[in-house]
Amino acid sequence: MKSSSLSYPPKSTSRRSFMTTASAAGLLLGFHLPIASAAEVNTTSGTNGAEGPFTPNAFIRIAVDGRVTLVMPQVEMGQGVYTSLPMIIAEELDVPMSSLMLQAAPPSDALYANPVFGVQATGNSNSVRAFWKPLRKAGAAARAVLVQAAARRWRVPPDTCTTSKGQVFHRVSGRSLSYGALAAEASAITPPADPPLKAVKDFKLIGRPLKRLDTPDKVNGKALYAIDIIPPGVKFATIAASPVFGGRVGRVNDRAARGMPGVNQVIVLSDLVAVVGDHFWAAKKGLDALEIVWNDGANANVNTAGIWSSARSASDRAGVVARAAGDAGKALKDGELVTARFEMPFLAHATMEPLNCTVDLKKNSCEVWVGTQVCARAQAIAAKVSGLPLDKVIVHNQLLGGGFGRRLEVDYVEKAVRVAQKVSGPVKVVWTREEDIQHDIYRPIYFDRLEATLKDGRINGWHHRITGSSVVARWLPPAYEKLGDFDAVDSAVDIPYDIPNKRIEYVRSEPPAVPTGFWRGVGPNNNVFAIESFIDELAKKADKDPFDFRLDMLGKTPRLKAALELAAQKAGWGSPLPARRGRGIAAQVAFASFIATIAEVEVGDDGEVRILRITSAVDTGIAVNPDTIVAQLQGGLIFGVTAALYGEITIDKGRVQQSNFNDYRMLRMDQCPAIDIHLIKSAEAPGGIGETGTTAAPPAVRNAIYAATGIPLRRLPIDRDILARRKQS
Amino acid sequence: MPTLTINGAKQTFEAPDDMPLLWVLRDILGMTGTKFGCGIAQCGACTVHVDGKAVRSCLLPLGAIGTKAVTTIEGIGATPIGNKLQQAWLGLEVVQCGYCQSGQIMSAAALLATTPHPDDSDIDAAMSGNICRCGTYVRIRAAIKKAAGPHNV
Asked: Is the ipTM of this complex over 0.85?
């Protein structure tokens, strides 16, 4: 895989070469990181002039030498979009994958906004979903123009021409022309607004488990993440913000730090302290040598217990009704009312690549190297802090060492630019893991109240009240104003079961002090956990098998019904298990995918939970790259299991108590269950998959524990003491 | 001026004796294939080999290395085991975001050097120090077995 470095020279002769000519998989491909601003990526249709490359739209550039560069509107953070999105374009454009170079999109909401969000953002499992049609049309329109250009040159009707592998053919006369040879003429033709698309049956690329374009350089140390960028002359910095949320710097004694070898500067801002040095080690040692007195401020007494107490009382009041059907009030009085409350904790993101941002701030320009899920927002915040106009702020977006929603925020860019204002020359700001965990923007706590009545073994009345912070209100205010917090109620308002009388409400309750943000799985995580856990309790009340209970109510959601039946079959549902072993189901519609998951667990006498196997059956519509779908589900399930078993951020005296992987525990190889994924073939439009597994795992595991022990857990993470203690009683 | 033998080549540079090898590699020598993940040897992203043994370079001071041979992800592919692992990693499409994978491959290579046909418990023991947030453990396990090849007893 070829990857082009930015134009700085290597720091030493041992610095690895960026250029290789062939990947292990035999694909010749390029990975071109933007050097200049958006000006280099011309985006107006077909008006580049005779010399320039053919750029029919914001996503495709074809050079006269035939090189095809695709501009990626979504970022690669492990979910494989740097392969699936090129596959979509290449399919309609009819170019081989091996001819592709990729370029991360520069910052631009106008050109690269995600069609669903309206802003340039990667998240919510919708890269393929949102760009499916637009990229197909982009590829098809470009192909149509190339055909037209060839037809004109040959003076034949366009419909007598065909395309294949980057060439136009006129079979009757045996003539052919490469796209490169046609690029100049093609630039003069306006692309059609609504070109016909390939029939699904004619797909050559889509639906095949093609090898990813970005992975070869990720197994040999060559792939660059933002944390790896080293501009010439760069200084290295690390920062500490107030341990108490919202606190300010009181005073700093930096005498010891200043004397240390390699320490260049100590920067004291109102809310954070930075140490700049010749390398990260010097900066970190310098930071550790500072004596900082913080003014803790108003939040010095905030703690988790108080936050929960507020959330619980907030949930006593009626919320905004997000969805209603039938007469829930009446139905809930008809028969025995079953109730449950579910509590889900703060969670940190803990991407493997700690937060970092490199800034070269000059008088009239600002150059930023970062891994961000929101490139235009990164540019905007750098412009705001520096006071420079947008067109003087260049953002080089890199491969992300994990996003999970953390990199939907630009706080770390903002802080880096403020540090850079005090540094002469480029500065690379790298957070310690402790800073990363303690200054996260956390998945908020959620408190869910569920009530239901049954009739003839089915749910008749249903009330779901969701209480928690609104991330949407802060992150996308125009959407919140128009739609309310659609994320907080996602998968709750569209609960797949056929329930005639239901009311779903949202109560906005903001925790004091703690900043909240999107976390992989977003709203569906919390709602599916509460709903699917409650469903099992209702099944028990109805004296029905959890599988049968669900199946009977999925008449209106055949795609989920089919997934549930397949999962149950593959998991051996109903076959006998020894004591303290159980299977649990989670069935959900989330991110436009239909997935049924069955976990099999064993609960030890000490309450320790061993997850033996997870089986998922998923209908995610057309699977652009089926291997990626399987990988995303495997990974998402593990992400969800980790949260279910261990995930909890607690606050005491206004500060986060966890700090690193020793006390914010992660699932590791020796606890990883066997995972079987079954894809259901579908011709429907692609659904989302990046977060789907994360949502599915916790309720499936919780229900398996319920089956194994009879204990209905009502909060996450799983409390082993409850599981052990009750066994004894 | 300290000298280290890294991937078979001698490197001479300026750095204090207490500087962890991780930062020598990344910030002094520009060899960024070895990654920073936690700084307390809990995540394995910084794994290198010292005389063939897997070591967390974030806690290995420069002064403790001496003349021992250091191997990093940039050099492991030149070894038969490293090459086999990289091929298996790509063949099974192990990688998602990829940030942890340098450390994963280095830990796996050290395992195969001592245990050519590891069973599941060998893999658990050798690999549980390497965190993958993307959750690629299932495929890592399969790729190690694939690289190890069939075991003819």
From this structure: yes
